[in-house]
Amino acid sequence: MSEPDAPWPFTFDAAGFAIRRAEAADASAIADMIRGVVATSNAPDYPVDALLQVIAGYRKERIAAALRLGPILIAEGAEGLIGTAALARDRIEAVFVLPAWQGTGVGTALVSQVVEAARGRGVRVLRVLASLTATGFYRRLGFVTLGAPVGERIPMVPMAIRLD
Question: pLDDT per residue over 72-85, tens digit each?
Answer without folding.
Answer: 999 999 989 999 99
